[in-house]
Amino acid sequence: MINTNVFFDVTDFQAAVLPCFKLSQIYDQLAQCDKSPLCCGSTTMYWMGLCVVDLFCQLCWLIPVFYTVDTGFWGVAWTMYVAHAGLICMVRKHVRNHLKIDGNIVEDFFSSFFAYPMVLYQCEIEIRAFNEAQRGKKM
Questions:
Q1: Hey, how many other C-beta atoms are within 10 angstroms of the C-beta on 102?
Q2: Which candidate, 76, 93, 102, 112, places its Cα nearest to that of 37?
Q3: How far apart are CA 70 and CA 85, in angstroms?
Q4: Which of the two residues, 137 and 88, has the higher pLDDT score?
Q5: Residues 129-133: contacts with CB within 8 Å, 24+ apart?
Q6: How far apart are CA 45 and CA 120, in angstroms?
Q7: For the packed helices 19-32 and 43-62, what is the interaxial angle rounded to 10 degrees?
Q8: Residue 25 in contact with residue 124, Cβ under 8 Å?
Q9: Which residues of 64-96 are buried (b: 16+ CB within 10 A; e: fewer)?
């Protein structure tokens, strides 16, 4: 049974600071139930590529913290943050489709834009619960 009553967990902090690690955990759990997408015939290549792109976006939207407003980096930062939210939105949509959870892309995007650590944590919890239910059916 998954304990969803935990107020703070290390994985929450991990999802906020380095979401690429949480993405790898999500796709690893999707691979356990044979629902992970493939890139070049490998699920590992898919999530590694996604993690590299997401890490690049995250670094690009954090760089302007060290520069003044007039440098023009803030436009790049907002663009990269929206791209980051789009990647997290894609992950949430993928999880919803494979687990047959109702929702739409607008909800996914705005959830990813305003609360991406919670979205990643929610995806992980849903996949973990699905995997445990599948193991329970096999027994």
A1: 6
A2: 93
A3: 25
A4: 88
A5: 129/2, 130/33, 130/99, 131/29, 131/32, 131/33, 132/2
A6: 20
A7: 160
A8: yes
A9: beeeeeeeebeeebeebbbbbbbbbbebbbbbb
Q: How many C-beta neighbours within 10 Å does residue 134 have?
A: 12
132 contacts: CB under 8 Å, gap ≥ 6: 2
Which pLDDT value is given to residue 1?
Answer: 43
- Distance from C-alpha of 130 to C-alpha of 99, rounded to nearest angstrom: 8
3-state secondary structure of 42: strand
CB of 23 within 8 A of CB of 120?
yes
H or E, element range at 25: helix 19-32
Find residue 39's DSSP bridge partners: 42
Residue 33 is given by DSSP the state T
User: pTM value?
Assistant: 0.76
pLDDT digits (tens, 9 = 90+) for 53-92: 888 888 887 777 777 667 777 788 888 889 889 988 988 9
DSSP, residue by residue, 111-134? HHHHHHHHHHHHHHHHHHHHHHHH
